[in-house]
Amino acid sequence: MKKELISTILACSLLFSGGFLVDEPEAAKAISYGISSSQVIKAGANEDNPGEASEGTVKCTKLTAQKSIYTISKKGEGMQITFNLTTTPENSLTKEKVTAKVKSTKIAKVTNKVLSENALVVTIEGVKDGTTTLSVAVGEATAQVKIKVKITEGTCGKNLTWKRKGTLLTIKGTGKMKDYSYRGFFFGKRNITKIIISSGVTSIGNHAFEELSKLKSVKISTTVRTIGKDAFGGCDSLKSITIPKSVHKIGNGAFEDCDKLKTVKILNKNCKINGSRPFGYTYDVDMVKEKISWKLIPGIKIYAPKGSTAEKYAKKHKIPFVKLG
C-alpha cells in the first residue's frame, strides 16, 4: 500500500510539476504509470545541475494544511490529507523526521505517511463518530487540522447496507441483518427519527436499534420474517408500530421500555411472541434497593386477528385487545 501510494504521488507530481526528486529505482515505477524515465531526476538534484546533488542540509521551515477541517463519512474509508512544505533550500527533498498522530485513536488513526520535496501526505482511517485533531511535524515545522468522523453509511449484514441521510436511516439489500450486543451499532446515531427496512431484508438483528430515543417512525418491509430481541428496546419516542404478516417471530424485549408506544399492530395470526416482555412494559429503578420493577405502559393497545397469538398475549398481560378484520 505504501509503495503504491508513493508511486501515485510520483505520477501526480510529475504530471503537474514536470519533475520529482526520487532515487533511481523509482524510474522503473514511473514508467509503469506512463511517465518517461527522462522526466525522473536523481535524488538531491537541482534544476541547474539535474545530475548532481545539492550541498548542505535541507530543512522544512513551514507546514501548511490545504484545509483546516476534514470529514470522513464511511467506516474504514482511507482519507489522504496533504500538507504543503516550505523548505530551505527551496523545493528540496528533506530527510527530517516525520511524525503524525491523532489525539484519540478511537476516532481515527494514522495508517500511512509519505514525504516528497513539496508535500506531506498523511493517510488516516475513521473508526467511529467524533471529532479529533491531527498533529503533524517535519523536523521542527508543525501543523494541525481537525478531523470530523461522521459515519453516514456502512454494512449491517453480509448483503445489507445502511445509509443515514439527515434523521432518516435506511436498511437495504437482501438477507439477514447482523445481531448486535447491548446498545448496538446505531446507538451513537441518536438523532435518527425514522427507519425504513427495505424489501429484501429478512430479519432485524438483536439490539439493532436499541435506545434510539428520538425514533418516531419505523416502516418494516413484508420480506422481514424475524425481529430480534431488544431490537427497538428503549425507543422512547416511538408511538406506534405495525408488524407485517410476514413476521413469524418477535424476540423478547423487541419493543420493551418504549414508554410512548400505545399502538401495536401484529398482522400475522400465528406470529410467535417470545419471552415475557416483548412489548407493553416499562420499568422503574429503585436506586436505594437496587431493584427494577416492571409495569404496563398506560394506554397501550394490541391490534391483531381474532384467535391470534397476539390476542392470547394481550389477555395474559391484561393489555386491551382490538380485533382486526
Structure overview:
By secondary structure, the protein is mainly beta. The protein folds into 3 domains: 1-55, no CATH class; 57-149, Sandwich (Immunoglobulin-like), CATH 2.60.40; 158-324, Leucine-rich repeat, LRR (right-handed beta-alpha superhelix), CATH 3.80.10. 10% of the residues lie in helices and 41% in strands. It has helices at 2-17, 26-32, 309-316, and strands spanning 20-22, 40-42, 59-65, 69-74, 78-88, 98-102, 108-115, 119-126, 130-138, 141-157, 160-165, 168-173, 194-197, 203-204, 217-220, 226-227, 240-243, 249-250, 263-266, 272-273, 281-286, 291-296, 301-305, 321-324. The longest helix has 16 residues, at 2-17. The radius of gyration is 29 Å and the shape is elongated. Mean pLDDT is 81; it is low at 1-54.
Topology at a glance:
Elements: H1 2-17, E1 20-22, H2 26-32, E2 40-42, E3 59-65, E4 69-74, E5 78-88, E6 98-102, E7 108-115, E8 119-126, E9 130-138, E10 141-157, E11 160-165, E12 168-173, E13 194-197, E14 203-204, E15 217-220, E16 226-227, E17 240-243, E18 249-250, E19 263-266, E20 272-273, E21 281-286, E22 291-296, E23 301-305, H3 309-316, E24 321-324
Parallel strand pairs: 1-2, 4-10, 12-13, 13-15, 14-16, 16-18, 17-19, 18-20, 19-23, 23-24
Antiparallel strand pairs: 3-5, 5-8, 6-9, 7-8, 9-10, 10-11, 11-12, 21-22
